[in-house]
């Protein structure tokens, strides 16, 4: 086979792979959910990326405010009375619901 045929073959095969830049992950794939790149960027922001669960509350007020406001925004958008950010995964969400 020619080099160009081999390159075309493997390029075509690579396009069959599922990629986060070419579509959304389907629901139910808890271990493969994709967060938009903007979320990844925000999660890496200094002061937001490494809060310790046992740090004093006085050092956690900013992140607690963000989480509280996010819950309020989500409740308003969805028309629900309350929203929680507590569930960490699908099974946690089911039992919380």
Offer a quick outline of the entry:
With 97 residues, this protein is mainly alpha-helical. It has helices spanning 3-16, 37-43, 61-78, 90-96.
Structural account:
The protein has 97 residues and is mainly α. The chain has helices at 3-16, 37-43, 61-78, 90-96. It is elongated.
Largest sheet: none
Measured by DSSP, the beta-strand proportion falls in under 5%
Shape: elongated
Encode the helix/strand succession as letters: HHHH
Q: What are the low-pLDDT stretches, counting only 5+ consecutive residues below 50? A: none
Quote the distance from N terminus to C terminus.
57 Å
Into which percent range does the helicity of residues fall? 40-55%
Figure out the total of helices.
4
What is the mean pLDDT? 80
Tell me how many strands there are. Answer: 0
Strand-pairing-aware structural class: mainly alpha
**Could you tell me the radius of gyration in angstroms?**
20 Å
List keywords for this structure.
4 helices, 47% helix, mainly alpha, elongated, 97 residues
